[in-house]
Batch of 3 targets.
Target 1
Amino acid sequence: MKCPYCGHLDNKVVDSRLNKDYTITRRRRLCESCSRRFTTYERLEVTMPMLIKKDDRREAWDRSKVVSGLKKACEKRPVSMSQIEEFVDSLERELQDMGEREIPIRLVGARVMDALRKIDEVAYVRFASVYRQFKDLSEFMEELKGLLSNKEDQQSDRS
């Protein structure tokens, strides 16, 4: 592994830890040339299904696009990067477990919206407004009314 500070290739691992799902290994490394420490992550490389876009184009899975969209939706909200990463990890496992070579992008979008609805309602509305491409304010208001009625139903079930 190349040192990000000096570019030297010789380093040693001083600590290794697995994430809670045992799917990612975090390694702390020490450069033997400049003695600085850096972190690397190892993740099992698996083949993800191709995504079928709304216009029938095929596109390769891109984890960074999903993370970026979630970060934008959750900006200035009480949602941590670890929550976003954990969700994307679980989404990738779910897509792999489907065993399909191609899946419609709407399945990914629906899964993201379901998760955001549970994590943070404001982030959910932000994401839904872009994903569903509301044509006017009335469509947006209908979505908000549905969200509010679901919340009221949940509160009355608790009582």
Note: Residues 24 and 43 are 5 Å apart (CA to CA).
Target 2
Amino acid sequence: MSERLSVTTPAGSFSAYVARPAAARAPAVVVIQEIFGVNRVMREVCDRLAGAGFLAVCPDLFWRLEPGVDITDQTQAEWDKAMGLMNRFDVDAGVEDIRAAIDLVRAGPGCSGKVGAVGYCLGGRLAYLTATRTDSDASVGYYGVGIENYLAEAERLAHPLMLHIAEDDAFAPKQAQDRIVGALKDHPQVTLHTYPGCDHAFARPGGAHYDAQAAAQADGRTLAFFRRHLG
């Protein structure tokens, strides 16, 4: 079952896509979008999580710039629009919107009280910041871009964090990856997985760098992680 809900903040309201599991109450996962908005790929992530027994919610984090962005990675015009949105995006405000979504979902009647987060690309960076700045019970980031600029925040990590790192990621070069791994590999709350031969967005179905085997491995690890920490 899918629906939309409205999240209200002091700055305004924005929508979120919701996919509900069969159970009346379940742990929840906030799905943090890529630079293409709450598109089919993100909705399908929510639907898969709901099929696995989680209440999944994907908030529209571009609402301050353009509500309802829903584009793909298939044309240059869409890439240009997505990159423009990313470059104008206020990361700090985005994390506050994620916090508002977590609070709303946690208080809702369909939630068990446990709420995690998973993000991709830009959302991977936001998943890391969700782990450092909110009370998310468990967070997962896929090929996050720019995490190396926020490593000082790792001291705030109070709940589990998992990061999936594509070793050939053109948007997160090896030097950045080395900084991330060096800073986080011994942190008691952090689990790191690296994927040799994989480029950015290896888990995006239909994308140029999609790797079905690596995606299945990462998704399996993510589900096990959420079941352990949210179940």
Note: The first helix runs from residue 40 to 51.
Target 3
Amino acid sequence: MKNGEIWLVDLSDAKGHEQRGERPAIIVGGANGLVIAVPLTSNPTTARFSHTLPISPDAHNGLDVESVALVFQLTSLDRERFVHRIGTLDGQQRVAIMALIRDLMGMD
């Protein structure tokens, strides 16, 4: 698993406002057996929230619908939740995701 890859993940036991079900997620880091990921949704209305990034399907990312990266739901997940790799973000999108993470964390 590498930064910028998009994997299908199993979030079936989520609570409250957390994303749930099997869905794509972008890998942004990891340590100590956990993978840090940004979940995606196909609900376009979520793009109205801060710390989100719309992503269109293309030949590299493996998405089949317009999606929104929910950076504000950045999470650490056990590797067992990752079902399979579906694609990779392009360089500009990776830079944009990392900028949103830095802003979310107050690092800018």
Note: The chain has one domain: 5-104.
